[in-house]
Amino acid sequence: MLTQSQLATLKAAIIGDPELSAFPNNADGAFAIAAFLNLPAVPDFYVWRTSVGITEIMQNGFDWTRVDNLTVGKARIWEFMTAAGTVNPSQPNVRAGFEACFSVEAGDQSTRQAIYNHSQRLATRMERLFATGIGAPSTDHGVGPGTLVYEGQVSFSDVSDARNS
Fold first, then answer.
1. Where do the structural domains in the chain lie, given as residue ranges?
2. Per-residue pLDDT of the chain in tens (165 residues, 90 and over written 9)
3. Where are the alpha helices (DSSP H) in the chain?
4. DSSP state for residue 90 in the 8-state scheme
5. Which helix (H) or strand (E) holds 87?
6. What is the pTM (predicted TM-score) of this model?
């Protein structure tokens, strides 16, 4: 459910878009607008994922030998970060933890990038409406993706509520 502020922002976005504002203000129009807003943002807008499984990261492009090279302190950080089985890369302190663990040696760069590649995704048009940040693919040091303020699919009832608020 959207907040009153988010409903107002959505309403303004619909009114400001000639294609969206042309849809009738009824259930069919709300369904059509919701379907449009649930498509990928154009142009592409990358955001940090809010939940990434450690298995996904460590089994796809991750250099396991880099873990073996960690100091005791860094290994403890990595172990603690990954113990729950998921991480939330949208949190700056989590990205700082990635940087702290894999920051010194030249081989760490590809490991960091493998982590960041799994830590981002493309936003929908609705998510882009509320996201903050640059929205570019992640660089080596985790710079680029935006942060989600609203996450998920918008419903036709949210669109209807926004249009009628």
1. 4-45+124-163, 51-118
2. 899 999 999 999 999 999 999 999 999 999 999 999 999 999 999 999 999 999 999 888 888 888 888 889 999 999 999 999 999 999 999 999 999 998 867 778 888 889 999 999 999 999 999 999 999 999 877 789 999 999 999 999 999 999 999
3. 4-16, 18-21, 27-37, 54-58, 64-68, 72-82, 92-101, 108-118, 125-130, 156-163
4. T
5. strand 86-87
6. 0.90
